[in-house]
Amino acid sequence: MSFNRDIKVNPNRVSTGGGRRGAALGGGSVLMVLALVVLSQVTGIDLTALAPGQDAGTSTQASSIDMSVCGSGETANGEAANTYTQCRMAATAESLDAVWGAQLPAQAGTAYVAPEFHLWDGTSVSTACGTASSSVGPFYCPGDSTVYLDMRFFSDMESTLGAADTPLAEEYIVAHEFGHHIQNQLGTMASADRSGAGATSDSVRLELQADCYAGLWVHYASTTVDPDTGTPFLVTPTQEEISSAVLAAESVGDDHIQERSGSSVDSDTWTHGSSEQRVRWFTTGMNTGSVQACDTFAVADTEL
Fold first, then answer.
1. Pick from 164, 116, 293, 106: which is nearest to 216 by CA?
2. What is the pLDDT of residues 146-161, one digit of tens each?
3. Euclidean distance between CA atoms 273 and 26, whole angstroms
4. 140-163 burial, b if ≥16 CB within 10 A, otherwise e?
5. What digits encode the pLDDT tens for the residues 250-262?
6. CA 14, 188, 143 angle in degrees (round to 5)?
7. Strands across the sheet with 139-141, in order?
8. What is the distance of C-alpha 9 from the center of its chain?
9. What is the pTM of this model?
10. Checking phi first, is residue 28 left (phi over 0); if not, alpha (psi -120 to 50) or beta?
11. How far is Cα 304 from Cα 299, in angstroms, rounded to an integer?
12. What is the chain's percent helix, strand, coil content, to nearest 5?
């Protein structure tokens, strides 16, 4: 999904480096630690560094991300976003801000408050939810209302998950994490029981709803304009681009990850949903553009 060249991009929309410091979320919840252990076993990715009680004040290591390539003033535009991944991240965040800034008040009666968006490329990052290692994929920390994304994830996306590293696939990942921020704003995250696992658990319903919210962004992205220029942020996606985002959603299904790791498919351990579910809910958001249609907590287990 390409950005229109005439939009303006603010490289400062993202922060970079080793992360920030703060109190760990939850104060060492045993249930969360166990959930992270289970999820690590399911995905083959070490997520235990996100466990509450980790020292969020320790030093971190991270190589620098050069945002200067995005330009400044008139040169920081859609062309830079189409060329450099870090610029595309900033532009994607601005597009998400514009879409949710319009749709959240209109559809949910809630004013949108933009999350922080932190890019990093290194061994660890310090967050209000704990210290995360580079093996953790993109995640949202409700403790500091921040989306964290290790830039190395995109280079690993194809080799590890079998998803093509395309612009819209990358943007889907970001939109999914912003979807968790929307859940945090609406109180959905706080009311859900995130300690459990299983095909119909609240954990899965949260992830599927975030997929639906990512699809909702795609629905509006090519018609929502950059407030600085009046130009739509993105060009209408081609069917090929949409297919790449659908493949990305499919590749992060719990069943797909279990199969690729050589494990048997066990729905009782799922925390994100099957490939079919993730594609279906992403498509629901993309086709309807409706926050209400994304209410995964309102459907029966058989309809999830």
1. 293
2. 999 988 888 777 666 6
3. 25
4. bbbbbebbbbbbebbeebeebbbb
5. 777 776 677 767 7
6. 45
7. 15-16, 116-120, 146-150, 139-141
8. 20
9. 0.84
10. left
11. 6
12. 55, 10, 35
